[in-house]
Amino acid sequence: MHKMMPLLKHTDFPAIRRGKLDTLQINVGYKCNQACFHCHVNASPKRKEMMSRETMETVLEFAKDSRITTVDITGGAPELNPYFREMVTRLRGMGRRVIDRCNLTILEEPGFEDMPAFLADNGVAITASLPCYSEENVNQQRGDGVYAASIRALKKLNALGYGRPGADLELNLVYNPVGPHLPPAQEELQAAYQRELASRHGIEFNQLFTLANMPIARFGSTLVSKGHFYDYMALLRGAHSDDNLSGVMCRNLISVDYRGYVYDCDFNQMLGIPLHAASSSNSQRPRTHLRDLIDYDLEGNPIMVADHCYGCTAGQGSSCGGALQ
Q1: Per-residue confidence (pLDDT) for residue 45, from 0 to 100
Q2: How many domains are contained in the chain?
């Protein structure tokens, strides 16, 4: 595995600062039942890192802050964390909107058969990765049999009301390109997904989010190995749009790793670029922990950037909520 930070740290990406914080994104562990080609977390069944109960309690204490409206739970497969259900239940009890970034196939693993009903009962929004409506492309990126398992999971979610017109259970899908390309126009691709999934499988969903592949971790290492890294970076730089700077997710989101350390986004988390909070109680420490930010206002703080940030501002833009334009 190639180390990506030396290739990305020298950058001319525009300086940006934080707006008002409203979203807490929590990575509860890097263990996953899959090992996808594009995964910027390098998640896999072999990973052992997992958020502890102590760190979860810090997350819950921070989430009581009235500014936080959404808690976005990710992994790995977040459902594999032993405290996942408790965290969801307590966050919903606070009135927070909760997003589960689900890979769909986890819903078929032994011991998780009742997970769809649990998510529905708690009104959890699901953002589910489905990199294509084509079986061949999905299996190429995620492994044999993943497409069929994903379709079965989507049907279970639809049966519970997820993604249905007029229902309150939100089901969004995520598209990533298979290779070193920018995503196509989100609106057009969403229409194609809706048409194809409905006609082939009777599946409905709310929105499609298109995400660019980040030149880090497993995908970045593959780019380097195949000699495509600099071409891909040139593509991202050439497609940069200043109009996307105001909408990038790092302006109103913080990313928390399984140990409780804080980053401007989950891509910075994977590169080990900590959030800078010069005026907080941890000003003499190299990393910022979430407990140091309780009652601390981050608005106006500089956002730590590197060359990978062009992945969020290229073309239509890319964020955890899909295209920016």
Answers
A1: 83
A2: 1
CATH code of 278's domain: 3.20.20.70
CA distances to 39, 87, 144, 283 from 224, rounded to whole Å, are 15, 38, 25, 36
pLDDT at residue 49 above 80?
yes
The reply to whether 149 falls in a domain is: yes
Q: Whole-model pTM above 0.85? A: yes
Tell me which H or E stretch contains 262: strand 262-263
Q: Is residue 244 part of a domain?
A: yes
Where in the sequence is the domain holding 256, given as residue range(s)? 5-313
Burial (Cβ within 10 Å: 0-12, 13-18, ≥19) of residue 2:
middle
Under 8 Å CB-to-CB from 131, ≥6 apart: which residues? 38, 137, 138, 141, 142, 174, 175, 176, 177, 178
Strands 70-74, 23-27: pairing kind? parallel
Given this model, what pLDDT does residue 38 score? 63
Q: What is the pLDDT of residues 245-298, one digit of tens each?
A: 999 999 999 999 999 999 999 999 999 999 987 554 554 557 899 999 998 999
How large is the greatest C-alpha to C-alpha distance in the chain, in angstroms?
58
The verdict on residue 318 lying in a domain is no
Pairwise CA distance, residues 63 & 115, whole Å:
23
| pLDDT given for residue 167 in this prediction | 86
DSSP track, 110-163: TT-TTHHHHHHHTT-EEEEE---SSHHHHHHHH-TTHHHHHHHHHHHHHHTTTT
Q: What is the distance between the alpha carbons of residues 264 and 323, in angstroms, rounded to a whole number?
A: 19
Residue 238 is assigned to a structural domain of this protein: yes
Residues 66 and 92 sit within 8 Å (Cβ to Cβ): no
